[in-house]
Fold this protein.
Amino acid sequence: MKNEQKTIFGISKDEILTLDSETNFKHDKEFEWIRQISVYFYNSLIEFRKRNKFSSLIQTSLSKSLNSNLGQQEYSYLDLLLSFVNFYKKNKSIILFKHIQSTSQNIKNTNWQKTIRKSVSILNQNGQPVYSKFSAKNKKVDSEEELLTYFVSILYHFNKEHLLHLKIDKSYKIIKGIQFETLQKNGLSKLKKIKYKYFNDTLKKIYYLCEAYFHQTSLNNAKENREEFISINNYNLVFEDMVDKLFSDKIEDIVNEEGLSLKNLKYNEDGKIIDHVYDYQSLIDTSNIFYIGDSKYYKSNNIARNTSKYKQITYSKNVIQYNIDLLNKQQSYKENIRYRDELTEGYNITPNFFIYGYIDDYRNFEGAKLEERGKIINSFHFENRLFDRDTLFVHQYQINFLYVLKNYSQFSRRKIEEFRRNTKKRFRNNFIRFFNDNQKSKFTFYEYEESDISDFVETNFRKLNGKCFKTSDNRLIIAKHNEDRQLEDVVSKLKIYILV
């Protein structure tokens, strides 16, 4: 709810409840967005089920998976609709070619005497007769054309019933009205007559799609029909998986001393899950560090409270400890990941973020509209020690929920990788911009440029503990808190360092 009276869709709860009785909700252009959302919600549950095969969260009335595989025997109505539409869009040219090929074959076998006698011709500009209908020499049934007619007729029915705005070539023969209702009842028996004809792979898939459709509409199966549903107890987990598909890379199964891998940390035995974790360039140098995120499936104006903050701290500490355990074994998750500097005993900054879903325009399914939201949350044991393992900063963002919803099941691998690349760069740049502003971060960075780095650190270790870090390219970076008087004499002659 946007407020007590209106939903985020700009209409009241009462209006939603009376949509079906007051207007033609099914066909009205004004409510096309509701039909879109219904399909995308359905797709999100199917995609979640594919990605989480062993989850007990999803409950369905169907005994078999609704993942639209053509080998399945049972489908929901919506699953069939989506399968027909997607198959048509992907194979439109092939289907039309088969139709033209079949029609051309019929023209070759034309009985011209019968055609001239029974058909009306049109004279072209040269005075030559042109016939649009032909009479064949024999009545042999074209199985391919018959199958295509069934497929296109079903597609036409879906298109008309649900205003899908599909463009179907006018050259197809389409069964409509009462004839189509009859076809729905006896379509299975008609298909059986051409079942063992030779079909290529595309036509075989068309056959199985038509068979699945007629199985549902046939009167012979009326007793088997029942209301179909698919539901989930906690949709917030679906939202987390939606965002995770956009943000997170594949986790490599590298084990530490305790036998734990990053996968164990992401999917804990107690059911707690680190929503998003990926490695990317650190804020200090060219080494990599883990970015750790948490999705927030909240009401529009709600923000994370202390519970979320403490949970995020726990997640971050677990990931840090996992990498330190590997370091103690002279191992690393990846060669370029660097969490602790041996000389300074400082810890690399671990970036954290929260992601909130929101709807600003309920008709916008295309723009991510990823924006910063709320204040940056920080946590520390010692406020002036930036390079301490207990010092954490959490940036907060909001993303268009409808964009995430649609693209959860429709994004191509290329688009996902492009989104990840741009978003990771943006998150890092935002952290850098934050730390380079000492009014916001309360830290100023300095670089010690002399060659005696080891002696300098050892001499000032008590003052520098948790406040300095040696980068992978051997720069000593010191982070001074605005209120830290102890470091003033140490950094007084040093050059200010800008993160890049």
Summary: The longest strand covers residues 288-296. Confidence is low (pLDDT under 50) at residues 57-73.
